[in-house]
Amino acid sequence: MDDQTRMLGLGGLGDVGDPDAVRKQSLGQPQQDIGDILQQIMAITDESLDEAQARKHALNCHRMKPALFSVLCEIKEKTVLSIRGVQEEDPPDPQIMRLDNMLLAEGVSGPEKGGGSAAAAAAAAAAGGSPNDGSIEHSDYRAKLAQIRQIYHSELEKYEQACSEFTNHVMNLLREQSRTRPISPKEIERMVAIIHRKFSSIQMQLKQSTCEAVMILRSRFLDARRKRRNFNKQATEVLNEYFYSHLSNPYPSEEAKEELAKKCGITVSQVSNWFGNKRIRYKKNIGKFQEEANLYAVKTAVDAANVSAQASQANSPATPNSGGYPAPCYTPDGRL
DNA sequence: GCGTATGATTCATG
DNA sequence: CATGAATCATACGC
């Protein structure tokens, strides 16, 4: 029953009472006529289903119907839509803009390869670490990112498709219904906007979770920096040689660090790390490093001896030892 | 598995 | 900003 009234757009017509408008629309029809029609419409709810159907049909065929419809549309526009109009403004959501920017920056939503590799390269640069396993992590990261990217795009497409499908469906429905109840094109437009808003909020969730996934991936990738990989033997040898031969002042200059880095195939900051760790650990437990110290002292001495022998010069290498760091005690077989 | 070694990170300091 | 100190987290050798 209630359906009938709603079908005729009478749901919220308690305040229809604008006789002037109706009169103007009726183009000189007697007001009595309008009153009759309204009376009939209102009475439909009290009739049986069959009676109501018949009445509806009769009213639909009434010559006044188009005029009445347009009036009802107008009234609806003024009341319902104006109420809704208050909450109409939707400024470009800062949240979604942030998400969009981030997805773009991470290379998830941008152009195919460029963004992705750029982000990965940036991450790799941030990692600033060993170039050997860097490529492995790099490709791993890229693969994961591509996966996220693919899911994101397929989901997005799905949403978009669903949105347009649903919009079409609703629009068709409303258009169809507009034959039986007063629906203005503006209202349809508004409904479409509402649907789009709803879908974009779903999209935002997708974007948000994608962002989260990227962040997790990224943090895991950056954490990989901590995945310690020992320097190769030759590198530690070079570093130790320098350290023990400069035990009095084991603070390599920037140039020295660069050279050491180049020799060892590591970065300058890794050299700094190494020396930082070495100094503190050496100082903390000199005894433990005694053996090592002697070993390298011998080694450098031998090297120096070789060099001087090659140069056929007898000046013994100066063992630089006079600084804050305690000297190793040389064992007899060290022969020094 | 466990203890130690070791590279990296963090935080305070000057 | 370089360094020291503490700490984290993994690698490595047993």
TrEMBL record:
Gene3D superfamilies: Homeodomain-like (1.10.10.60)
Residue ranges constituting the PBC domain according to the UniProt record: 29-223
Compartment(s): Nucleus
Ranges annotated as DNA-binding: 224-286
InterPro entries: HD, Homeobox_CS, Homeodomain-like_sf, KN_HD, PBX_PBC_dom, TALE_homeobox
Entry keywords, A to Z: Activator, Developmental protein, Differentiation, DNA-binding, Homeobox, Nucleus, Transcription, Transcription regulation
Main localisation: nucleus
Gene Ontology molecular function, alphabetical: DNA-binding transcription factor activity, RNA polymerase II-specific; sequence-specific DNA binding
Region entry Disordered, spans: 1-31, 313-336
Residue intervals of the Homeobox domain: 222-285
Biological processes per GO annotation: cell differentiation
Any one annotated GO CC term: transcription regulator complex
Family: Belongs to the TALE/PBX homeobox family.
Name under which the protein is recorded: Pre-B-cell leukemia transcription factor 1
Gene: PBX4
